[in-house]
Structure formats: C-alpha cells, structure tokens
Amino acid sequence: MKKYIVISLDRFRDSAEIIAEVIGGDVTEYSRDAFREAFDRYEGIVAVMSAGIAVRNIAPLLKDKWTDPPVVVVSPDMRYAIPVTGGHHGGNEIAVMLAKIGIEPVITTATETMNRGSVEGYAKINNLEILNKDSTRKVNAEILDGDIPCYLLNEPSMAVVSPGVSVLLSNGRYIVGIGCRRGVSADEVTGAILKALDMAGIEKNDVLVYSTAVLKKDEKGLISAIRNLSGNLVFVTDEDINSENPESGSRATDKIGLKGVAEPSALALSKNKKIILKKTVFGRVTIAVIE
C-alpha cells in the first residue's frame, strides 16, 4: 500500500492517474465509503472533484488535525490544488508537489500566506516532534506578528515553560507513562522502565519522553531514574490527565482524584493514542507505553 491515495469521479480517472504518478499514490473511484476507508489507511488524500463533495464526505470523519490525514482537493480542470484540511500536516506539501504538472497550489494557512514559517513546518524540516501540540495555535499567531525566539537547550538542563511555549523534541515516538509509590528508589524505577520496554519490544532510544503527574514533581527516585536514562520527564497537569479515557482502571480516582497516572499521562502527550503496553505493575512502579 502506498502513502497517498487519489479519489476521483470516474470521468476524472485519467487526471487521477496523472496525479498519482506524481505523488506516488494509489487511485480509487469515488464511492460513498471511499473517504471513510482512506482515512484509516493513508497518510494523505487527494480528491479530484468539487470541494463541496469532498468536504461533505470528510466532515463526519474529522477528529484531530494531528491524526487526520490531510485532504487536498484538485479542481476537475486540473488548475488548482487546495488543501482543505491538514495544511500544516502534509496538505500544503502535497499541493506544492502538484505544481510540477502545472496545478497551482492554493495555500490558505495564515503563516504561509504571509510568507512566514510555522511551528509544524520547523518541526518537520528538522525531524522534531512537537510535545505540547496545543501550544502551536498561540505560537503560530505570534509568528504572524514578528519573529519569536527559538532556544536550543543542551543536556543536562531543565526548562519550565508556559502553555504558550512550543516544546520540540528530537528522539523517538513513544511516550512512557510512570506511576510510583512515595519514596521509590531510582533503581526501582529504572528497572521497571527497562522491563516494560523489553515487554513492548522498544529500545530506549525510541522513547520520545517520559510522563507522570504533577504530584510526582518532588519524587527524587523518579527524577533521578529519568536523568540516568538521559530522558526527558514531563509532569502532566491533573486537568490534562482527567481529559483522557484510559483503558485500565485505577485506584488513583478515589485516592487522588485522577483517572490514573501512568496510562493517562502518556495518552495526554501522545499523537496517535495507541496503547503499546497497558498499565503494568512492577513492584512499586507502574508503567504504560503509548505511541
């Protein structure tokens, strides 16, 4: 299966084949279920049809710009390519690819129309992952008004940032959520993490970040363990934890008013919300691995 798919009405099949050749995609004929099936299988969709048909079909499928595939509408006369969703998440890139066969990309994302960059674009170019995705709305808005500072922190260091600061990390795609008892040692935490990663079939270098609850911010053994692993530990707020719906139950609900720690804190930071290892107990430490 290829990365992209071109969906077209039967009468525009020849145009769809040309576009598929350019972007390296599959081609399928438009049907009532074509977009629904493509949403689950492809990283990007090109629709050769009127924008109205495409928009009405994808509207019930849209969930999150970070996980939905971008959708680019190409006008039936092959004159314009319009990213209608996911411009910063691959849509603009697909539209620009089509310029090589004379289709004009119609870019509507604010930063690009003002000849400015975006957080998402910077992350993609530099192979980075945006940790706190909600921050991009504010940062991109500020970029429209002028340059904003970008800081590079080398290890060892600490950073305390507000919600309006985008944090970009360079390693891995997995979030390791950690819950633990009070007074746990660094060795206990490290041992639990390594066992969990082994069970999940994941290398330490594949971990993007480690997560836990804010109430663990003074847990010395936990902090030391992550430092020893050369990892990044994020303390997730109670509000963000309780906004998630973890599969595993937790006694933390009655004790501390949280839906859990390990599993929901990792879900809160993950892009795909895909559980690789459900909440698993290792002595006094609980670990969950989320992609």
TrEMBL record:
Gene Ontology molecular function: cobalt-precorrin-5A acetaldehyde-lyase activity
InterPro entries: CbiG_hydrolase (IPR052553), CbiG_N (IPR021744), CobE/GbiG_C (IPR002750), CobE/GbiG_C_sf (IPR036518), GbiG_N_sf (IPR038029)
A UniProt-annotated Pfam family: CbiG_N
Assigned keywords, A-Z: Hydrolase
Enzyme class: hydrolase
EC number annotated for this UniProt entry: 3.7.1.12
Single GO BP term: cobalamin biosynthetic process
Stretches assigned to coiled coil: none
Domain Cobalamin synthesis G N-terminal: 34-112
CobE/GbiG C-terminal domain: residues covered: 175-289
Protein name: Cobalt-precorrin 5A hydrolase
Species for this entry: Methanoplanus endosymbiosus
Gene: cbiG
